[in-house]
Specification:
Elements (H helix, E strand, L loop, with lengths): L2 H16 L7 H12 L5 H6 L14 E10 L4 E10 L3 H14 L12 H10 L8 H11 L4 H6 L14 E3 L4 E2 L16 H5 L1 E3 L5 E3 L4 E3 L2 E5 L2 E6 L2 E7 L2 E2 L3
Antiparallel strand pairs: 1-2, 3-7, 4-6, 5-6, 8-9, 9-10, 10-11
Helix pairs in contact: 1-2, 1-4, 2-6, 5-6
């Protein structure tokens, strides 16, 4: 990730925080802003703070800018001009997006949704995009890749432990010690499950260390201070520590 990309994410996240009362997940908002505006590089976003390509209507309560675009006429795409919503700050642009979501009944299932993966799929099914891979791309290529879930947690939309669902399979991003309990003593290599042993090494004291890339099944998750621990068949591992994802 470049510094410009990191700044873009943080700036959009800050605008989400200001507008948090609209109750839309920041991870969804940021992912869409990245995807729809090409990291804020589009003319519509860089000059007019419309990061989502939203069209203008007489009742939308904002000004418009007329820009060239392509429209589908039922047979092919044609070049034309269209009116798009215009804003004067990033905060105002994010507010406009939230008001857009709230103004259409078909998007009402996004309001209060706490599962980012589900929200990404829902906005596709609600009609935002006709691409059958749009929702999957939002979640995998943006939410997960750029760790946007942390904003859902930091802004208290969801508890940190909510990120891990019992029964789901996750992948270690680093080598991790297995513990007897959250923040507890290390589990000896010989006490790991057979599958655990097959995907682990041990240190000079015989403690088991699961290797990066190992896939584990979540049996339970708990948030403690700035950490999230998940229970796996062999014991407990630290999945998030101070905002850093060790397990995805």
């Amino acid at each position: 990730m470049t510094n410009k990309q990191l700044n873009f994410i943080n700036n959009i996240a800050s605008a989400c925080k200001v507008n948090e009362h609209y109750n839309i997940l920041p991870s969804l908002t940021i992912a869409q802003a990245i995807k729809e505006s090409n990291w804020g590089k589009s003319t519509l976003s860089s000059k007019y703070f419309n990061f989502f390509g939203m069209k203008w209507t007489p009742t939308c309560g904002c000004e418009y800018v007329e820009l060239p675009t392509k429209e589908w006429n039922g047979f092919t795409y044609i070049n034309c001009k269209a009116r798009f919503r215009r804003y004067y700050s990033m905060t105002e642009g994010i507010k406009g997006y939230y008001k857009f979501i709230h103004s259409y009944k078909r998007y009402s299932n996004l309001i209060g949704e706490k599962n980012s993966e589900k929200a990404c799929l829902l906005i596709q099914l609600d009609g935002w995009s006709t691409s059958p891979t749009y929702g999957k791309s939002l979640y995998n290529d943006y939410v997960l890749k750029y760790n946007l879930l942390k904003f859902d947690c930091e802004y208290n939309y969801v508890p940190f432990s909510f990120l891990f669902t019992v029964g789901n399979v996750y992948e270690l991003q680093v080598n991790l010690y297995v513990r007897q309990s959250p923040k507890g003593e290390a589990v000896k290599f010989e006490c790991l499950t057979e599958n655990g042993k097959a995907n682990a090494k041990f240190d000079e004291y015989g403690n088991g260390i699961l290797l990066k890339g190992t896939r584990v099944t979540c049996k339970e998750s708990i948030a403690i201070d700035n950490q999230v621990w998940i229970k796996i068949p062999s014991g407990w591992i630290c999945a998030i520590n101070d905002g850093k994802n060790y397990v995805i």
